[in-house]
Structure formats: C-alpha cells, structure tokens
Structure prediction request, 167 residues.
Amino acid sequence: MTQIPNSFKQIRWGLIAACCLALGVAAGAPARAASALPDGPGKQLTVQICGKCHSPEQAASLHQTRRAWEATISKMVGMGAQGTDDQLNEILDYLANNFPPPPPAPVNINTATPVELESSLVLLRTEAEAVIQYREKHGNFKSLDDLRKVPGLDFQKIEKEKSRIVF
Ligand code: HEC
Prediction:
C-alpha cells in the first residue's frame, strides 16, 4: 500500500526538480547563488570570480579580519583564482566589510574568574584580584559606576570595554 504514495512522491519530486532545473537554467546559476549574499559594492565580482570553483557562499563562509581575508584571497589566487588587482581589492573590501570576525563575547563582571577578567578586559592580575575582592566583600556589582569604587582598578580600561560588560 505504501508503494503507491511513495512512487507518487517520487514523481512529484522529480517534477519539482525538473522545474527548479529549468528555472535555474533560465535565471542563470550565478544569479541564483548571488541572492544568498548581502548586497553591496563588490558582490557581483565576488560571485563572478570566487564562484568559479565553488559556490560564492563557500567563498564567503568565513568571518575573519581584513588581514585574514587578504590571506584567503592570496591562497585562492595561488589555486588559480583570476582577477586584476583592482578586482581582487574590491572583493577584499566586500568580504572584509560583510564578513568581519564575530564581536568579542560579553563579560559578566559578577561571575568572571580572575583569568577571564585579565584576558577579556586586559586587566592586570592585581586589578582582576581587586575586582574579585571587592565583589566578595560588597556583593554583586550593579552598574558600571560601582566599578569606580574598586581600589587600584584603572577605570578607563572598564570604560573602554563598557559595551561588553554585563551584570
Ligand atoms: C581556481 C579555483 C578557485 C577559485 C576561483 C576560488 N577558490 Fe576558494 N577554494 C578553492 C578550493 C580548491 C578550495 C578548497 C581548499 C582546501 O580545502 O584547502 C577553496 C576553499 C575556499 C574557502 C574555504 C576555506 C579555505 O581557506 O579553504 C574559502 C573561504 C574560499 N575558498 C574563498 C574564496 C574566495 C574569496 C575566492 C575569490 C577571490 C575564491 N575562493 C576563489 C578553489 C578556488
């Protein structure tokens, strides 16, 4: 009994696949793939030049610094990607602007360990210890201003990273 619906399904999927194929051919493969990338200057070149060997989406599958994007593009040129310096620079701008590294993680000032405080807020060991001691003595910090009261802590460092600090 299950044979019939199954084969029906197959026919339907076959039809859908044929439709997609026809649409794909009509629209042109690069145009279809391009729609998944954000619009902006350089997109067209990225699709055209970086979509030759793999999908343009794979070309944009990383999130990294401009310098790292530069290295990726050089690597691809080494593999045979072709473009003028101007074209490759435009691609670099596009990728660096649209696929930057992820923003640094937030720091919970009330649960962070001394090592986390040191590494993520670039505090000295003595400053990290002062934060912990103050926290243990007075309870959780409730606002940025509370951190001004920590003896020996350079508040400018806190101010600089305030968008990442959570309570
Ligand atoms: C001549 C063929 C070719 C072209 C053109 C090409 N690539 Fe690649 N790309 C490859 C191959 C082959 C791999 C897989 C490499 C591997 O596994 O080490 C790859 C992998 C990648 C990866 C996956 C991560 C990595 O470093 O392996 C990224 C990102 C990438 N390419 C970006 C780009 C960008 C950006 C462009 C346009 C400037 C581009 N590619 C153009 C051949 C190409």
Notes: Residues 1-34 have pLDDT under 50 and may be disordered. The CA atoms of residues 107 and 116 lie 8 Å apart.
